[in-house]
Fold this protein.
Amino acid sequence: MDAIYLDNNATTRVDDAVVAAMLPFFTEQFGNPSSMHSFGNKVGLAIKKARMQVQELLGAEHESEIIFTSCGTESDSTALLSAIKANPERKEIITTSIEHPAILNLCTHLEKEGYKVHYLKVDERGRLDLAEYARVLSDKVAIVSVMWANNETGTLFPVEEMAQMAHAAGVLFHTDAVQAVGKVPIDLKNTAIDLLSLSGHKLHAPKGIGVLYLKRGVRFRPLLRGGHQERGRRAGTENTASIVALGMACEQAMQHMHFENTEVKRLRDRLEAGILAKVPRAFPTGDVTNRLPNTSNIAFEFIEGEAILLLLNKFGIAASSGSACTSGSLEPSHVMRAMGIPYTAAHGTTRFSLSRYTTEAEVDRVITVVPEIVAQLRRLSPYWGETGPATEPEKAFAPVYA
Amino acid sequence: MWDYSDKVKEHFFSPRNSGAMEDANAVGDVGSINCGDALRLMLKVDPDTETIQDARFQTFGCGSAIASSSALTEIIKGMKLDDALKVSNQDIADYLDGLPPEKMHCSVMGREALQAAIANYRGEEWKDDHEEGALICKCFAIDAVLIEDTVRANNLSTVEDVIHYTKAGGGCSSCHEGIEEILTKVLAEKGETFSPHTVEIKEEAKPAKLTNLQRIKRIEMVLESVRPQLQRDHGDIELVDVDGKTIYVNMTGACAGCQMEALTLQGIQQKLMEDLGEFVKIVPSRAGSLSRAVCHP
Ligand SMILES: Cc1ncc(COP(=O)(O)O)c(C=O)c1O
């Protein structure tokens, strides 16, 4: 039995053709693109081609707006730190309460340095209140950073509209589009987005390669200074093999964009409907009518996510969970808490994220296995009775000592 | 993915003694759904012999919580209540060939459920004042609450102090930023600011040699100062004897024999040495307890 990989929001398999395209850059094409000799020249041309492939997928106006970095996190950090260095008199930042730690932990750090960070709240479906956003937008804000799609629920934020609003207020706008790039169409030249982060390993390129899109004319301060690579905006000898791979992966993502939003979406919907039809006391989280085509996040009440994952793993199925235990922290996922998902369900949230490699047979197998696993764990749970939740579960199990 | 031992996996995939027990005469409920793990332990105790005839559990929680519950029921079946009370969380972890540091609290929950069940059987009150914080030191599984309390109780002011008292930060040292944050916070409560530079230890004039009585008094004072922290963990320490450089103590309560004992003793020994200005060795007078802790660092 082959393993079933439904954790593509965590990372993806590198496409075979992408691997083939990058391999020569370890061996015969090992030159430094900055070198004057022919070893370097060819590599320089390959990087140029990759830059154009990325430009195409993002719909960027200029190839020079693409800066290669080492990962999504570096792109995020570079964007925010550049904005505050370029605007030292502005001491506020706007972001959302459900960003990836790459943004959130940087923001809590900046708070310690004296910045005021506005964390926009979300409702129970994970949606923002644009009126709240409008209220905090001011000329004191150095940058707005809002993710395009949430990694846990797939919920899409109206970043194009929000960028317009920031633009009108004279504030820079950055989006962490790590989960969105390659899954939804993006056309940056027709938006007011100033900066965008992406990460190769979420779209079938290798880990350890990212991009920061920087709109022409936006004031910028590099994170890494040194050599003149990336026009002095990101020093350090280029990761040529991975850059070539990312370029190729972007081209493939472009070709599969329609497939992703029809076939992958169909399989995701089939999976979600199939599970919900068979498992009582389970519900999808996030804004189900406005989300990535590949993501389904289901909360299973009264059981714990890590236990679900371990049992799924035994059946060869890979997924992920927002439970506290999977991260070693005490709180379940900040995304689930921000949406007000009750603790009875938040610990049991399970994310299934598909890719263009997912097959219908795989989906159907998961639909058969999941209900068994949930039933097995509920039999062990003190919050679950014979056929449903213990009547008033919080009372049936109410430790006097807790 | 956690690095679970085969034993943990085995007990998770096929838990022993799971499910409700109709005729239980001792029930211990601990944890809550908010924290992400909860355990109900049900025992059938023979009233004549005070022996645990049967044990079952129901657990809401992760893999190691379920495995710890399963292990606990296997360990205590057939035990006398008084012996069962001596089962420590380390015993549960050992039974499972160890737990990752982030998961040690699952074994603590097992021990607490056992104490709660026995208290329930005896009609006693059992209070769990065990509070858990975010895990700071991954090498020695030490959380923020413990560090904060220790810093407060002992007026600690440097990362080195924290290492000596709690062992937190004494391993790979990646958590020193987190420890500094705790120090900054606790010191700020007293209106002091944390300085990352270790204070120079003042070269005090060597005190004139202490009389035996003075020396014992000072030892007692040091032990007094650490008692609140131990009592918080249901433990205690008392001075048994002083023989030259060796100080014999008795560790009692929940802490005896657990992994923390060795760590705590090290901290206390350090404090005694600083206070007395001489090298001393602290030894638990109850043979066996420390050596076992050392076997499973
Ligand atoms: C939304 C989001 N932002 C940032 C990152 C970080 O990207 P990277 O792992 O390339 O640093 C991730 C992925 O882990 C992500 O999902």
About this structure: The first strand of chain B starts at residue 26 and ends at 32.
